[in-house]
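Example: Exonuclease domain-containing protein.
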Amino acid sequence: MEYIILDLEFNGTYSKHRHKFVNEIIEFGAVKCDEQLNIIEIFSELVKPQISKKLNSHVSALTHITIDELKKSNNSFSHVMSKFRKFLGDGVLMTWSNSDVLVLIENYKYFYGNDKLPFMKYYVNLQKYCERAIGYSDKARQLGLSACAEMLGITFEENSLHRAYNDAELTAACFKALYDKELLQQYIYTCDDDFYRRVNFKNYNICDLKNPNINRHEMYFNCEKCGRRALRRSKWRLKNRSFRANFRCLRCRRDFEGRITFKQCYDHVNVSKKTAEIERKDKKKRKSAEPKTTS
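Written out as structure tokens, the predicted fold is:
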């Protein structure tokens, strides 16, 4: 089995023809790895924009790609797509997060009218795989590619990031460092109808306590100092898409606000918790009563 790790660079633009914003692909970069995860072939192609004649200034600054380079390549999306299909073959397509595969689907639909990629048989979200393999547990923030590389001690040039081939190569290095054959099987998706429902599902925060997908048994907090279960002292309230309530640790006499967020994903709910210290009123009074010193 061969693994094809793809990275895309794209330009956000408005399509007057379709009356909507489109993330138009301007660069493909990919590496093909054998079963020992050795890079055996590379793919790197610029794409001449067909929707917009200008590059977003942020994209230009980030990638250092110029509109002149893209025009000189004279590569249409369909031309590069045809070459990439052959490069992919029957291999497993992999990307860092699912954003690139969503952009690929978006462009394929725009130019071909098909919202599925008929040439893609298997897919892996390497961001999710690496998070699991490395033991990354921050549900509130996804693991970035450069952060993952730093955690693994993989060296890279900061100014080489945000070019498709370089990012694909760095992703391959992270994958190789964290390779676990059995674990990987859990992250390989067959690209059937269920896969497209999954990848197109947009996660959202649950903001109704009566939602049946909320597990009320998760709505507790332990004291961060002693580890004991804290006592809830107020009703739950919704603020900034998180449910909040005041808590007190009876042992430590510590007051804090507990904040819990429920994010609905395709087949599960992610729960993340944070706390914020509440300053007690008697402490505030003591501070205000202290005499001010003069120099």
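The chain has a mean pLDDT of 93.
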